[in-house]
Predict the 3D structure of the following.
Amino acid sequence: MTTAALPARSVRTARPGAVAFRLVRGLLHRLLPLAILVACWEAATRAADSPFFPPPTEIVQRMREMWFSGPASHLFFSSGAGEDIVPSLYRMALGLLVSVVIGVALGLWLGRSERVLAYLNPLLQFARVIPPPTMVPVFIVLFEMGTQMQVASIVFGAVWPVLLNTADGARAVDSTQMATAEVFRLSPYQRIRYLIIPSALPKIFAGLRLALSLSLILMIFAELLPGTSDGLGFQLTNAQSMSDLLTIWSVIVLLGILGYLFNTILLAVERRVLSWHRGARRA
């Protein structure tokens, strides 16, 4: 055994403990500011005793009564979760999926065709700055009231980050790699599959993160419109009409939790899918 091998073996032996310590320390660093904020919020609302700002403990209790008081066989989800959370997540997921499919397909096409992109770029820049709420009267005419119109509102707002980032990523493919692909006579499908899409993936994920947050916002906005009979946005409107501030705060807190969870999941998927990209940049 060489002297150089000793430190390496000691590092490998201590690695599980060091990893656990880093995980616990990272978790504490993440949760400590939130715990302090919730404690301050609880103390301030208890001291103020205002009906407009209920304490976090009462909000959590209302959330449990509305959505998380079901049996263990249903993962503690109650029937209220099926009426409020499931329809909202379905509309958001469908709108985001359609946005990604359209955005990636058009983005790859525009990114590899400079002439088409030059023609359509003014139109794209014009369309992407139109606020989605202003298109609601048009969507009401084109689609049926309800899920179709709500999904269309989500797609119109969420498709632009994916499309423009994908086009940017496809346009930035290294010219040497494209020349090599031409020398090896790769088919158009093989170039897209093995060269263009992997090169554009970092940009696609950047657009996807923006589209995810926009989908959550537009999902609530679409459910605030007439013709909605379920979902978190409908619950928000219903609570507002009855001046039920505790339910309003419960919906707001749940939306924050959902947004944090979705973003965390997407970042984990991005780190997994783009692990080769980070390794190539370090090399």
